[in-house]
Amino acid sequence: MARMTFDRRRALAGAAGLLLGLFGVLLAAAPASAHAALVATDPGNGTIVPDAPNKVTLTFSESVQLISGKIQVLGPDNSRADQGEPTVNGGTVTIPLRSGGGRGTYLVSYRVISADSHPVGGSITYSVGAASTPPSAAVNDTKVDPVVRGLIPVGKYLGYAGLVLLVGPALVLALLWPHRLSRRGPARLIWTGMGLVTVSTLTAIWLQVPYTLGTKLFDVRIGDLRDVLGSTFGAVMLVRLGVLCAAAFLLRPLLRGSGSESKTDLALLGVLGVAALATWPLTGHPTASPVAGVSVVIDAIHLAAMSVWLGGLVMLVGFLLRQANERELAAILPIWSRWAATAVSALILAGVVQALIEVSSISGLVDSTYGRLILVKVALAAGVLVVAWFSRRIVRSRTAEKKPRGLRRLVGVELAITAVVLGVTAALVQIAPPRTAEAAGTGSTTSTVSQTLTSSTMAMQVDIFPATVGNNSLHLYAYTPDNKPLTVVEWTGTAALPAKGIEPIPIPLLRITDFHAVGDIALPQAGQWTFKFTARTSDVDEQTLTMTANIS
Question: Of 42, 216, 272, 472, which has the fewest beta carbons less than 10 angstroms from its beta carbon?
């Protein structure tokens, strides 16, 4: 009766850990942030250009893939201004435009797939000649269905749980399992892990369609599935399914315990295991890392160490500590203890390297959602390590094989906490790391400052690039109030920084067309500069307009 009570408590503890892990996934499944940042555009966002360009260029912080029909340019009359299919080269998307575009404001809307398989959507505007009322896009290319957004980390969680039930138990069964014990229980465990990974993979393929297109959960067409399977994400998922099928055939002799498995079969299983583990980082943050090769290897090591350690713990608490006799435990536990110590060391080392690459700064660790989840994961992992230290002490004291119940309790606690850790990990892969925000910030600091100054007789467009200390280029355009080019006979300008006592500095301006002038000036200090421009339109008519711009 006491044994049944203890088993019931242990089952409840494991179920509680699983539910807490799933709750952590759902709680942290905030709106998925784009994992690539738009860092530059040509024409610049919000700028006014004198002549209609023949293309629009979007530059992202990492390589991207195009989604059919998800990039468009709308003209001032809301008609399509793009022509032909856009092209992509790494992180640069080029959109060809129709010739002879009219004056006014254009809207560029886009939705692409970043290197880590997340959709990136948004829009920019630019104007030809003069600004007008921006056109409105018929589709919101930034949205993600909340049901889809919530199910993606749940599917990833099931995949991680499947890895734990597959990799660790198979290793223990191959190298530590006593011959006299039945393999039926471990076989069921391993087939469950295989099923969870398969379901997780198929779910990921299905969810990637509405996630990519911004549609509903069941808004999936055959053509859309074909497009996903033809992408890098789909190719990696198909490789994972192929590896699972091959592993299923090689696992059958091992699970039956007939002794027909050979060393070659076990070696092939090891190779397939490595291949399967590599498919996780190939569709996540590591592929977009500044050191992608290192990140992919480190992430695979992290997953392998996690799977071996936690899967071994499941085998201990579920079978070995209950079924193996004292002599068998005396042989198994010291070996397992060394395996666990090695796996935990690899887990910690890989986790530290991953965090350094993805977070990159103390502020990123404290101020970002990604960084705070890393801290939560570290705190939970520290709790697990404390429990593991007590477990290792019991094994070293050689009392575990005589009184395994105490060790079973500790291992059950480890598994309950690590179920939550897996939930946090599944949520982390849906959140943009701080390095992405830093890339976006870096890109935004290089954008042109653009302002339109108006009077009763003139509209003057002023562009200042790059709006930083040092040399800056200026472009001035003059228009009538009804947005027609206005002939300017002479341009003059000054720049001053009153807060720092810098008096007006003359800006040499060169008239290159009737309504367009350019100039260059070296700005010595950062601050809120005051620019004053005078445009003389005849011998007696001139307008002087003033603006301020923040120079960083």
Answer: 216
**pTM listed for this prediction:** 0.68
Q: Which candidate, 550, 545, 552, places its Cα nearest to that of 476?
A: 545
Residue 286: which residues within 8 A CB-CB, separation 6 or more? 116, 292, 295, 296, 298, 299
Q: How far is CA 528 from CA 264, 450, 452, 492, in A?
A: 72, 15, 17, 20
Count of helix runs (H) and strand runs (E) in the chain: 13, 18
Pairwise CA distance, residues 464 & 522, whole Å: 12
In terms of Cα–Cα distance, which of 199, 206, 203, 207 is closest to 162? 199
pLDDT value of position 397? 59
The stretches in the chain having pLDDT less than 70 are 1-35, 137-142, 258-262, 360-361, 364, 388, 390-408, 410-411, 422-448
SS (H, E, C) 173-212: HHHCCCCCCCCHHHHHHHHHHHHHHHHHHHHHHHHHHHHH
Q: Does the N-terminal peptide bond of residue 43 adopt cis geometry, omega within 30 degrees of 0?
A: yes
Q: What is the pLDDT of residue 448?
A: 67
Tokens 């290197």, located at residue? 115
How high is the pLDDT of residue 436?
Answer: 61
Q: 133 exposed, middle or buried (CB, 10 Å; 0-12, 13-18, 19+)?
A: exposed
Predicted confidence at residue 370, as pLDDT, reads 73
DSSP 539: S
pLDDT score, position 30: 40
Asked if 145 and 125 count as a contact pair (C-beta separation under 8 A), the reply is: no
CA distance 74 to 22: 43
